[in-house]
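Reopening: PTS beta-glucoside transporter subunit IIB still failing for me.
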Amino acid sequence: MEKLSICLACNLGSSTSILVNKMKQVAAGSQKLSSFDLTIDAIPAGNINTEQVKDYQIIMLGPQIGHRRDEIEQKVITYNIPVTIINAADYGSMNAANILKEAIYQIKTHN
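Support: Ran it again with your exact input. Result attached.
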């Protein structure tokens, strides 16, 4: 079973927690994604440290903390984890399907 491990981060982790639940619902309803060992978690950006996030394949930041991307990339640089900023329109509308698609694309294309 192929692994898919996504970390969402925002200021407090509360808005991304809602998004995580929606993403899990999308994945559960997808025949293609049902074959994955899926992990999606939400954490406050201030809690990101290397031990906590080392097993994720991607860290996606809420647009409100996009300005912290460089800082967070430096924290996880040794693990070669891509750090992206969630599209503001998708985040605002809680478009879990688009965000999940983007996460998978970024994981697949990251070297």
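The chain has five helices and four strands. If you still see a failure, please send the error message rather than a screenshot.
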